[in-house]
């Protein structure tokens, strides 16, 4: 089974895919677009977690599941969750930096 290196960053890449936030959008439209994109990305991370849990439970119950599939699903879930946490940390850092600015 080939491991596609691009799969682990799917959730993160969806933040930039095809969502053109141009100057033509109103702030409300841009905010809604960003919120929808963020929701989609978080849902994908959740899907990877659920798929990993499902395969792990099937393996534990003795169903015919290949061990490497379970391990790959677990790694995908772990990598996407870690990337999401890192992005969250960067956003919080940026917010705190903005709040420290004097006007």
UniProtKB/TrEMBL annotation:
Main localization (coarse): other
Task: For this UniProt record, give its keywords in alphabetical order, as a comma-separated list.
Answer: Bacterial flagellum, Cell projection, Cilium, Flagellum
This protein's GO cellular component annotations are:
bacterial-type flagellum basal body
Q: Could you give a GO molecular-function term held by this entry? A: cytoskeletal motor activity
The record's InterPro entries line, in alphabetical order, gives:
FliE (IPR001624)
Spell out the subcellular localization from the entry. Answer: Bacterial flagellum basal body
Q: Which GO terms describe its biological process?
A: bacterial-type flagellum-dependent cell motility
Q: Name one Pfam family in it.
A: FliE
For this chain, the family text in UniProt reads:
Belongs to the FliE family.
User: Per its UniProt record, what NCBIfam families does this chain match?
Assistant: fliE (TIGR00205)
Stated name of the protein: Flagellar hook-basal body complex protein FliE
Q: Which source organism does the UniProt entry give?
A: Ureibacillus thermophilus
């Amino acid at each position: 089974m080939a491991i596609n290196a691009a799969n682990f960053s799917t959730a993160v890449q969806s933040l930039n895919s095809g969502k053109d936030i141009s100057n033509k959008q109103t702030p409300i439209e841009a905010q809604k677009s960003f919120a929808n994109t963020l929701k989609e990305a978080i849902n994908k991370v959740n899907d990877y977690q659920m798929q990993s849990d499902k395969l792990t439970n099937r393996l534990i119950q003795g169903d015919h599941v290949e061990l490497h599939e379970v391990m790959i699903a677990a790694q995908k879930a772990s990598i996407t969750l870690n990337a999401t946490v890192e992005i969250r940390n960067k956003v919080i850092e940026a917010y705190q930096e903005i709040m420290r600015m004097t006007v």
